[in-house]
Amino acid sequence: MSGNTTDPNASLLPRPAVLSLAIKEKAALYAAYMPFLKNGGMFVPTNKPYKIGDEIYLILSLMDDANKYPIAGKVAWITPSGANNSKAQGVGVHFPADETGQRAKSRIEEILGAALRSSRATHTL
Predict the structure, then answer these.
(1) Burial label, 44 (beta-carbon count in 10 A; 0-12, 13-18, 19+)
(2) 34 exposed, middle or buried (CB, 10 Å; 0-12, 13-18, 19+)?
(3) Cα–Cα distance between 74 and 95 in angstroms, integer?
(4) Residue 115: CB partners within 8 Å, gap ≥ 6?
(5) Is residue 74 part of a domain?
(6) Which site in 10, 41, 48, 88 is 20 to 30 Å from 121, CA atoms measured?
(7) pLDDT digit string (tens) for 36-61?
(8) Using one digit for the tens of pLDDT, what is the confidence trace for 66-122?
(9) Residue 124 included in any domain
(10) Which residues neighbour 118 within 8 Å (Cβ) at sequence distance 6 or greater?
(11) pLDDT at 7
(12) Which pLDDT tens digit goes with each residue over 2-38?
């Protein structure tokens, strides 16, 4: 025995990917927000491959808000490269049903206000 007490399987456990998204204007927030997900979510442009259910740690910045919103979510939407609808490649991150997810959802919906009911196209629908 080598005396090593670390778990030999620890390196096999997948670590959540870390993505950051900085939203600079209301139109970009509208295009990225996913209100149709139960707890809300954000579309994050990325060319990295993910699968539905993959854990993502999202660091979200919203316009002039000094706060950053750290969100431990899961992939709930995938737009692959070359999508025939000309949509940007990326993933939709579903917010968790905890305080961090609710805080981000509330702040986003507060910023968007009546724009939430718009019929303009978004990154997802």
Answers:
(1) buried
(2) buried
(3) 7
(4) 26, 30
(5) yes
(6) 48
(7) 999 999 999 999 999 999 999 999 99
(8) 999 999 999 999 998 887 777 889 999 999 999 999 999 999 999 999 888 877 767
(9) no
(10) 30
(11) 52
(12) 455 555 555 555 678 999 999 999 999 999 999 999 9
Angle CA 54–32–122, to nearest 5: 115
CATH (domain of 91):
2.40.10.220
CA 16 to each of CA 37, 43, 71: distance values in angstroms, whole numbers, following the listed order: 20, 17, 11
Q: Does residue 1 carry a pLDDT above 50?
A: no
**How many CB atoms within 10 Å of residue 89?**
16
What's the CA gap between 66 and 54, in Å, rounded? Answer: 28
Number of domains in the chain: 1
